[in-house]
Design brief:
The chain folds into 2 domains: 173 residues, Acid Proteases (Cathepsin D, subunit A, domain 1, Beta Barrel); 57 residues, no CATH class. It contains 3 helices and 14 strands. It is mainly β and 305 residues long.
Length: 305
């Protein structure tokens, strides 16, 4: 039975080069994902990194992110600082992540990586990394993904302001992020897609994602489950219609704007007294393939919007 068209379908890179289907499953690596009910929830996967985490049964909820390329989780004794109202400043509060990498027989090695999200409101630094196996509790005893490098974050700073003298509130933050985007020259890595390609375990750089449809009688709080496929498009039974194959573009789109005189609803000739900076960070493949972010700055009438 085909899943309705509302099923999520995402793909990286030009799908025309993939030419991957159910008949080429030997060059495809899959991974379970889910979208849990709740405010501000993200697409995640529950993963046990290494036999150490598998033995104690501790899985880590890792965000599956198309907008970044690095793959990290917290290492032992990591610290996350917060409390300052300024970007990059640690503040007076800190917490120790509850979910982190537990060492096993795999050798931890020195590594230098830095990761920033949300306009630098979240900055994390890794000084170690490990090459280990990914186990997925939702599919055990199913297939694992061996020989994957993961950075181990030792410290982080989250911008969450806490006034002086106030008690430190509980901090909500991600315990790991798996970036699926193609790495650019300035990225720290490691990148799971690049590793699978270099190891010959997938034959295409495409990464696709799809979700199973919810049961007809499911409630609004239903938790969606799905799959990420490295090296393949989703099976044709998981969607209807034709996937978009020419979404990538390099055209320059002009942003329409106009100056408005105060209390005016039409273009005016008054020189603006203030400045509004519109910052557009072009994420995903477009920004990474151009190796830079483009910032558009236009002078606008103060309080004109």
């Amino acid at each position: 039975m085909k899943i309705p068209a509302v099923t999520s379908l995402l793909a990286l890179n030009d799908v025309q080069i993939a030419q991957a289907s159910e008949g080429q499953s030997s060059n495809v690596v899959s991974m379970p994902i889910h979208l849990l009910y709740g405010g501000l929830n993200k697409v995640t996967t529950s993963v046990m990194v290494g036999s150490g985490n598998e033995k104690i049964g501790q899985s880590i909820e890792v965000v599956v992110d198309y907008g970044s390329s690095g793959f990290w989780i917290f290492g032992p004794n990591a610290t996350v600082n917060y409390g300052s109202q300024y970007l990059g400043f640690p503040g007076a509060c800190n917490t120790t992540p509850q979910f982190y990498y537990h060492s096993d027989d795999s050798k931890v090695f020195n590594f230098s990586g830095s990761y920033a999200y949300g306009g630098n409101s979240k900055i994390l630094d890794a000084d170690k990394a490990v090459n280990d196996t990914l186990y997925f509790p939702s599919s055990l005893p199913g297939a694992s993904i061996p020989n994957i490098e993961v950075a181990l974050v030792s410290s982080g700073t989250v911008r969450q302001y806490v006034p002086d003298g106030d008690p430190c509130p509980e901090l909500s933050y991600d315990y790991g992020i798996m970036g699926l985007a193609t790495p650019a020259g300035f990225d720290s890595g490691p990148n799971i897609k690049t590793e699978l390609l270099n190891q010959g375990r997938i034959s295409s750089s495409i990464v696709s994602m799809y979700f199973d449809s919810a049961p007809a009688d499911s409630s609004i709080s239903y938790n969606y489950t799905g799959t990420v496929l490295f090296g393949s498009l989703p099976p044709s039974s998981s969607y209807t219609g034709t996937p978009i194959s020419n979404a990538t573009t390099s055209e320059i789109v002009k942003l329409p704007y106009r100056y408005l005189a105060r209390d005016s609803s039409r273009p005016g000739g008054v020189t603006p007294e203030g400045m509004c900076i519109l910052g557009i960070s072009l994420g995903g493949e477009f920004a990474r393939n151009n190796y830079k972010k483009k910032i558009i700055r236009k002078r606008l009438q103060e309080n004109s919007y």
